[in-house]
Design brief:
heterodimer; A: 236 residues; alpha+beta; five-stranded antiparallel sheet; 12 helices; 5 strands; 56% helix; 13% strand; B: 96 residues; mainly alpha; 2% strand; globular
Chain lengths: 236, 96
């Protein structure tokens, strides 16, 4: 199955998860509802490493049968999930399940070893806190093939995530005022207008710009725009 | 897909790329009015090149570059430098 846009993939993820939850709530067996899903599905409770079921698609792609995963889950995780990804999942996913309401969704990338691929591949994983009485959570995973056909869009999302991670520390040292000015800059507001809008002199704007440039190691407007996209401070 | 990417949330980035995708679709007709030369210049401007560099690179006069830029701005209704980059990214003229 190929998806035109990334949003389409997200929408499908969301749709299938809600649909499955609704069917399980009606009394359907969760093993049955995930059987013909076009995605890999993993079922667990709030501890994401205590996997209780995986679907057919998952077996087809990873080579692990549901009972194999269930019985040897720590071995399975160690064998196919990159240690850094596993650490992320252990640390952040239970937190997410606890803190958010069931309307909140999360999509993250994890690195997985899949048969037929050399090295780890990025796999997009979608999940949301459970709205089922017993707290069963569903994770849906798209295989790399799914987004390779998406005209390189997923690749771009990953590039941006990488940039954000690489430059997170730099961005953090900006003051609130500097972030305010940066936001205006990347949205095309010029110095005189920034000065007017913030009730400061043009020279002060100039000084702030100099500091921003130095702190973020910016050499061109294009560099500035990378920050704008990575940190979500641009209006498209 | 051999490059290694770290684990982390991507929801916000996907939303942003979706907005860019919509930006592209909403302006397809405008974009299609650009000539080959204008496309070339838009790409270089978005890439951060200034007029003298572009003139030299393409072997044309600076004033010609300036005229092309004016034409691009009018055709695409570009208000500022930020818009050049949005267009170039949306139409895959430059990489992120």
């Amino acid at each position: 199955m190929a998806y035109q846009t990334d949003q389409e993939l997200l929408t499908r993820f969301e749709y299938y998860t809600l649909e499955m939850e609704a069917q399980i709530q009606k009394g359907e067996d969760f093993k049955k509802v995930s059987e013909h899903l076009p995605f890999m599905a993993i079922f667990s409770y709030s501890d994401p490493t205590k996997i209780i079921h995986t679907n057919q698609r998952h077996q087809k792609i990873t080579g692990y049968a549901p009972d194999e995963v269930r019985e040897k889950r720590s071995q399975y995780l160690k064998d196919i999930v990159h240690p850094a990804s596993l650490e992320y999942i252990r640390k952040h996913i239970p937190e997410f399940y606890l803190k958010q309401n069931h309307h909140q969704t999360m999509t993250f990338v994890q690195q997985v070893l899949l048969p037929g691929n050399s090295g780890y591949c990025p796999v997009f994983t979608f999940t949301k806190p459970s709205r089922l009485p017993d707290g069963l959570v569903i994770r849906l995973l798209a295989e790399p093939k799914d987004f390779e056909r998406m005209s390189g869009k997923m690749e771009r999302v990953l590039e941006i995530v990488q940039f954000k991670l690489d430059n997170f520390k730099r961005f953090q040292v900006l003051s609130n005022r500097e972030i305010e000015i940066l936001t205006l800059l990347v949205n095309g507001v010029d110095n005189p207008k920034i000065a007017d809008q913030l009730y400061i002199s043009r020279r002060t704007v100039e000084t702030h710009r100099k500091h921003i440039k130095r702190k973020l190691d910016i050499h061109s407007y294009r560099d500035l725009m990378k920050y704008a996209f990575a940190f979500g401070i641009i209006d498209i | 897909m051999n490059k290694f990417y770290p684990t982390g949330p991507v929801t916000d980035q996907i939303r942003q790329m979706t907005k860019l995708h919509n930006f592209r679709n909403e302006r397809l007709e405008l974009f299609e009015t650009l000539t080959e030369r204008e496309l070339e210049i838009l790409t270089l401007v978005a890439d951060g090149q200034n007029n003298p560099t572009i003139a030299k690179h393409l072997g044309i006069k600076r004033v010609t570059v300036q005229n092309h830029r004016t034409s691009i701005r009018e055709k695409l209704n570009i208000q500022n430098d930020s818009d050049y980059i949005k267009f170039a990214l949306a139409y895959d003229l430059i990489k992120f």
